[in-house]
Structure formats: structure tokens, C-alpha cells
Amino acid sequence: MTRPLRIGLGGPVGSGKTALIEALVPRLVAHGHAVGVVTNDIYSTEDAQRLEWSLTSTLDASHLVGVQTGCCPHTAVREDPSANLAALTELEERVPQLTIELIESGGDNLTLTFSPGLVDRSVFVIDVAAGDDIPAKGGPGVTRSGLLVINKVDLASAVGANLARMDRDARAARGERPVIFADCRRGVGLKQITAFVQPEPRPVG
Ligand SMILES: Nc1nc2c(ncn2[C@@H]2O[C@H](COP(=O)(O)OP(=O)(O)OP(=O)(O)O)[C@@H](O)[C@H]2O)c(=O)[nH]1
Ligand SMILES: [Mg+2]
């Protein structure tokens, strides 16, 4: 028997990682997946509590584990992922039929990467309101993650973000690696992101 596909979601504080999980889970469940979620927060299990409430109609609380890292987020998902690996084992014992596990890193900075021993694929989430120069600033999440999500496109006009520039800089930094513009609150880009996080990924365009 193969274990569930493990997807890491990283990115700066407030870029929309939890909002993306809230949008993805109902879509994955509709595709017939059993989904488990591990969240990481430094000083709380706030995101797990939020998901327990916001996903109440789609996900039983037994599918959720909140890890309180007590240390900087990238330590917990890269240098020493033992607490996250233990959380995944706990989930798989509780819910043996899981097919996909989403692991949200604590909000970090542009240096975040996941240990390849923890995740099979990574999604890096940035948002337009943090500045349209972020793709040009680079870092491993921007350049080498499996999928780059540029979230909150609905706020572009309010903050004066140039989406064409973000698109150009992201594609220049990533080559063939995919980039999706998203609005997690309204489902923009979610079809392609859902395709990426399934075991047999389809082209994300
Ligand atoms: N307008 C808009 N707001 C969004 C979008 N995605 C998330 N938000 C809002 O942005 C804020 C932060 O979203 P979260 O999902 O908590 O961000 P996060 O990356 O999980 O944050 P941390 O876990 O604290 O790092 C919340 O108020 C969300 O409602 C979006 O696409 N558009
Ligand atoms: Mg979060």
C-alpha cells in the first residue's frame, strides 16, 4: 500500500496559505480524495482551529493536526521535520484511507523550503499586496517550488500591483515551472491548483 501524497504549502505570513487549504479541500473531496491537513504555527494551533471551524461540513476534525513549532517555521519543515512527520503518522493511523496530506508551514520569508523527506511536492504562496517586486526578489520558494501561487489578484488595483510584471518576473525566475494567479476567496485559479495537488498532476497552464 502506498502512503498519501504529501504537499507542502509555504510562503510569507498572511499570503493566503490557510485560505488556499480552505478552498482546496472541498474540491479535493469532490474529486473523491480523503484529505488530511497538518498546520504549523509558532506559538499556537490557530490555523488548525480555524480549519476545524471553516471546513466543518467537509472535513472531520480527526483529519486535522495542529503543530505548535515553538521555533522558526523553516526549522520545523526543513532542518528538523520530526514533529511534522509524527503528525502525519498520527493522521495516517487515525484515517488510514487518506490519499492526500496538505502540510502548511508557519508563515515565513522568501528563504523557506521543505525537506524532501517531509513532502513530495511544494506550493509556494505569495500575494500581490506584499509588493509586485516579490517574484523579482527570488529565493528558493519563488524559483524552485513545484508550483508558485500569486494570490489575492482581486487586490491588485487597490494596491497598484502590476500583474504583468509579476507574471513576467515569475516566469523568468522559474523557466518551465508553473505559476498560477489566484483569488482564494472567490475560487480564481483553483481548478489548476487542484489539478497540481492530486497524485496524477495534470497540466496547470
Ligand atoms: N482579498 C483577498 N484576501 C485573501 C485572499 N486569500 C487570503 N486572503 C485574506 O488574507 C488574510 C490572510 O490569509 P491566511 O489564509 O490566514 O494567510 P496565511 O498565509 O495562512 O497566514 P499565516 O498562516 O499567518 O502565515 C486573511 O484575512 C484572508 O481572508 C485572496 O485571494 N483575496
Ligand atoms: Mg495560515
Characterise this structure.
This protein has one domain: P-loop containing nucleotide triphosphate hydrolases (Rossmann fold), CATH 3.40.50.300. Helices cover 37% and strands 19% of the residues. It has nine helices and seven strands. The model has no long low-confidence stretch (mean pLDDT 95). It has a seven-stranded parallel sheet, with helices on both faces. It has 205 residues and is of the alpha/beta class. The protein is globular. It binds guanosine-5'-triphosphate and magnesium ion. Magnesium ion (MG) binds next to α1. Guanosine-5'-triphosphate is lined by residues 11, 13-19, 47, 107, 151-152, 154-155, 183-185.
Q: Tags for this entry?
A:
single chain, 205 residues, alpha/beta, Rossmann fold, 7 strands, 19% strand, binds magnesium ion
From the N-terminal CA to the C-terminal CA, the straight-line distance is 32 Å
Instruction: Return the string of H and E elements.
Output: EHEHEHHEEHHEHHEH
Q: Structural class, judged by helices and strands?
A: alpha/beta
Count of alpha/pi helices: 9
Using the coordinates above, name the CATH class: Alpha Beta
Q: Largest sheet, if any?
A: 7 strands, parallel
**CATH homologous superfamily assignment:** P-loop containing nucleotide triphosphate hydrolases
Strand order of the largest sheet: 3-2-4-1-5-6-7
CATH topology name = Rossmann fold
Count of individual domains: 1
- What is the rounded Rg? 16 Å
| Molecular shape | globular
CATH architecture: 3-Layer(aba) Sandwich
